[in-house]
Design a protein that fits this description.
The protein is mainly beta and about 240 residues long. The protein contains three helices and 13 strands, in the order H-H-E-E-E-E-E-E-H-E-E-E-E-E-E-E. The chain has one domain: Lipoprotein localisation LolA/LolB/LppX (outer membrane lipoprotein receptor (LolB), chain A). The N terminus and C terminus are likely disordered.
Length: about 240
């Protein structure tokens, strides 16, 4: 990013990050997306609190249809979401529906869709300058705030800070304030699927307000991606 050519702004940084991760046109042309996500959560003493493997299946166009399925011990769970319903089932019985289930789906898509989803309607972006986060990484820091009471596509009012490599716009890490705690999430490995960048492995640390790590809270593994586009002839399914 050549900061001498024009004033650095939040939008400038995000647009550069999107160019690094693919293109907005390609992101908006996704017809369907599937992947497997394994989440492992840890207690402060290092013991495993829980481990869950989910299969996510999103159909965005022409009509939205989202399913997230997983099994815990002998119980099967399924989340179903579209433009009119948001429901959660346990062993085929409805156990929850409405705003909470919708928020779960929005949160999953929020994580997967970075940095593209920073351009979602209603997102308030603020440029907070350069920051050194390691011996080798200097990043542009973007603050993102949300107003779920005003915008139905916002799942929470959590405050996020995003870190993008100063030189090439790569999305490196983020920090979130989910009252009353802070978390630092690092992208350890990313993958290219259909010309777009998606997470492969991420780690989340409980941290203080300065981003200083306290303990490992979670590991997230993403695999078995399958992606199709509208106008498939114009976009390679794999790159």
């Amino acid at each position: 990013m050549d900061d001498t050519s024009k004033e650095t702004t939040a939008l400038h940084v995000v647009e550069n990050a999107i160019d690094s991760a693919g293109t907005l046109e390609k992101w908006q042309s996704i017809a369907s997306l599937e992947y497997t996500k394994t989440t492992r959560l840890f207690l402060e003493n290092g013991q495993i609190e829980s481990e869950t493997t989910q299969r996510h299946h999103y159909v965005f166009r022409p009509k939205k249809s989202i399913k997230i399925a997983w099994v815990i011990q002998r119980d099967s769970f399924l989340v179903v979401h579209n433009d009119s319903i948001s429901r959660k089932f346990k062993n085929d019985s409805l156990i929850e529906q409405g705003a909470t289930v919708k928020s779960t789906v929005n949160s999953a898509m929020y994580v997967l869709g970075m940095p593209f989803k920073l351009l979602d309607q209603g997102t308030i972006l603020t440029y907070e300058g350069l920051k050194t986060i390691s011996a080798t990484d200097t990043v542009h820091t973007i603050k993102a705030t949300y107003e779920p009471r005003k915008h139905s596509n916002h799942s929470t009012k959590d405050v996020w800070w995003y870190h993008f490599d100063k030189n090439n716009g790569t999305f490196l890490s983020s920090m979130v304030y989910h009252e009353p705690t802070y978390a630092l999430i690092e992208n350890e490995f990313m993958t290219k699927e259909g010309g777009l960048t998606f997470p492969r492995r991420r780690k989340s640390y409980r941290c203080n307000k300065f981003g200083e790590k306290q303990f490992l809270r979670g590991e997230f593994h993403y695999e078995d991606y399958s992606i199709t586009f509208l106008n498939e002839e114009n976009f390679a399914k794999r790159q």
